[in-house]
Fold this sequence. Notes:
Chain B: It is a multi-pass membrane protein. The structure holds 2 protein chains of 2 kinds. By secondary structure, chain A is mainly α. Chain A is built from 9 helices and no strands. The longest helix of chain A has 34 residues, at 7-40. The radius of gyration of chain A is 23 Å and the shape is globular. Mean pLDDT of chain A is 76; it is low at 1-39 and 74-85. Chain B is built from 16 helices and no strands. In chain B, helix 14 packs antiparallel against helix 16. Chain B starts with a helix and ends with a helix. Classes of the chains: A mainly alpha, B mainly alpha. At the A-B interface, helix 1, helix 5, helix 8 and helix 9 of A face helix 3, helix 4, helix 6, helix 7 and helix 10 of B.
Amino acid sequence: MSYGREDATIEPDFIEADAPMVATGVAAANTDGTFQDSGSRGTLDETVLETLKRDVVDINSRLKQVVYPHFPSFFSQCSDGMGAASDNDISANCDLWAPLAFIILYSLFVSHARSLFSSLFVSSWFVLLVMALHLRLTKPHQKVSLISYISISGYCLFPQVLNALLSQLLLPLAFHIGRENHWVVRILSFLQLVIMALCLMWSVAAVSWVTKSKTVIEIYPLALCFFGMAWLSTIL
Amino acid sequence: MPSNNSSFLDIDDDLEGVDDFDNEPNPFDDATVPDSPSMNEPTMGKGNAVHSAVDNKGESAPLQGQMDPPAYDQVVGEDASGGPNGLRPGLINYYSRYFQLDPTQFRKRLSAVLTFRNDHNSENANNETDLYGAVWITATVVMINFTMSGGLTFIINEVIRGVRGDERFDRASQFKKLLHSIWLFYGYTFGVPFITLQVLKRDEHSERNMNFKGVPQLISVYGYANLIWIPICVILNILDLFKHLRTVQAIQWAIVALGWAQSSYFLNSQMSNNNNETQSGGKLSLSVIVVIALHSLFCLLFRFIIF
């Protein structure tokens, strides 16, 4: 008769068995949605311009989720729930288009299309790989693959592209105008450093937000990698 | 008879008496078995509906019913962390255990390097080896060597003096410095421990060879020993601006010697954890000599190649 008391302990078992079922239901619905998304892509009967435009819009919408909201403004406006949602989104459908585009632009700006381009291109990919490996190694419990981490950190390269554009193309134009004036040179050099710092903070904030890195242990290596790239674009 | 009684599944043995009582089915089973289908039914139905939406296979529902109790995603997570011994060394998850550490622990280790404390190492050296410090402390040293001289020149020339030149600093020397730092520091941190481990294994005179079971542990020690090169590289890079002065070169030598002394002391204290008899005995064992000789070689290379 003492067995009768065990009913109370058994029941939660069945209820628990119910819970993952619901979770898989949600996941299944999610994957269904993404399948439909990717199904609408890649149609052959459209012009190249349309395809390119769709890719650019795609990249831009992803940037809107991850990178744009984290411009260093010293106040945080994003909630955790939204972070989780877009993180799911990003790890579900990652692409290497944006990292490729950003790295090409970055190395083009920094190298001025000289022979340095190839080494910058390769080393940028290497830096992305190192960052992805670091994220993968410090977070073994998150089910995000190496490629998605490469994609995520590639998206967070966007501020570095801006940095390279500003400090390698636009500021040198100003330098040409005011080359002789010491004060112009001082102000512009200082501006270069400020832009570098801002873009570095932007990148680091974005990547630490999207990968949910909170401790120094997780953020510092990412910041070091981004610092290397920002430094190259400032000083070369 | 006894064999009949012991088996649970026999329903009736045509004998009356107390035995029949024993053969009565378990009330526990009674309570659960008829219940379970009725309780599973709604979940099965849900699973069926969901899976028919994804793929219209009839087998998916019973499969789902069998697989759901272990909560399969938890099993995967435990596989990555709980059973690292089951993972092969080729997998990324195998190495991820060397990168799991929390900030307080990390800070404690860093301060232990700088303050010559090695008392609490012996007990957690076995299970808490990390390669994080070895990789990223070394990366910091390399990054300082790469960026600092160029950065200082940039700030002095352009921000303070306001002079802009096209060939501001010799980039070639900067990149040479980067490459040399990479091979020297990473080669030393990740290559030399293999040699040291062999020496420690063959050294019968000291007890220290019991402390190290694998190369990762030694790599970790060598990596943390690199911590002293962070401030030293900062100072050397600043002094490098006044390289033409003879006194400055002497100061640079002195600072490198200081770094050599600190890091070799740290290496030795780590390798002979708590047994002071090797030091107090007065005889230097072979492993100490080899470790210090390799470290001196490394410091000389550092001084001559990078600065």
